[in-house]
């Protein structure tokens, strides 16, 4: 097993479940007409927490673990009022991708590596609530549940090897 990833994010995360905003989204239907529909998005506080959290994840923690992971998160809130909700923290810890066109085909390109590729990899959660009015924060520990192997790079590509020389 590889070593666990341990770090702290300062600031109070917002609950993603109980503080959603309803907005109207415009889109075009198949005929080209503009239509609108309501949709639910993260609250302003939750959206503001994510970029602040990203800046606090150390570079050595952005290893993009593969396979199932377990997380231990102790969230210290400023008051008793907020619900215990780690989802915004998990969102900030995952890698970010964008879709680009290459040779006429769409491909996913990593924009920023995270602790793991996707928060769906989290198979076991241990989340604890604490109070610290002076320093609200989240103390995080991520452990791979399966052994990890670092990708090996060959000095020369396999296609370049002459099969008669080997």
**Gross CATH architecture:** 2-Layer Sandwich
Top CATH class: Alpha Beta
- Separation, N- and C-terminal Cα atoms: 34 Å
Q: How many separate structural domains? A: 1
Quote the beta fraction: 35-45%
Question: How helical, in percent, are the residues?
Answer: 10-25%
Order of helices and strands: EEEHEHEEEE
- Radius of gyration, rounded? 21 Å
Question: What is the number of beta strands?
Answer: 8
Tertiary shape? globular
Arithmetic mean pLDDT: 84
Count of alpha and pi helical runs: 2
- Given helix and strand content, the structural type is mainly beta
Describe this structure in words.
The chain is mainly beta. The protein has a single domain, classed as 60s Ribosomal Protein L30, Chain: A. It is built from 2 helices and 8 strands; from the N terminus they run βββαβαββββ. Strands 1-8-4-7 form a 4-stranded mixed sheet, with no helix packed on it. A two-stranded antiparallel ribbon has the order 2-3. Helix 1 packs across helix 2. It is globular and about 55 Å long. The mean pLDDT is 84. One of its GO terms (molecular function) is magnesium ion binding. InterPro entries: RusA-like_sf.
């Amino acid at each position: 097993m590889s070593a666990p990833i341990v770090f702290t994010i300062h600031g109070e995360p917002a609950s993603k479940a109980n503080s959603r905003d309803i907005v109207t989204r415009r889109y075009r239907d198949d005929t080209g007409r503009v239509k609108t529909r309501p949709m639910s998005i993260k609250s302003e506080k939750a959206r503001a927490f994510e970029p602040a959290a990203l800046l606090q994840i150390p570079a050595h923690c952005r290893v993009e673990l593969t396979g199932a992971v377990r997380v231990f998160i102790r969230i210290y809130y400023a008051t008793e009022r907020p619900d215990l909700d780690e989802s915004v923290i998990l969102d900030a810890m995952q890698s970010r991708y964008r879709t680009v066109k290459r040779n006429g085909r769409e491909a996913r390109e990593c924009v920023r590596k995270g602790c793991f590729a996707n928060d769906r990899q989290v198979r076991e959660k241990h989340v604890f609530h604490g109070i610290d009015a002076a320093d609200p924060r989240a103390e995080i520990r991520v452990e791979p549940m399966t052994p990890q192997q670092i990708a090996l790079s060959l000095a020369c590509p396999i296609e370049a090897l002459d099969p008669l020389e080997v």
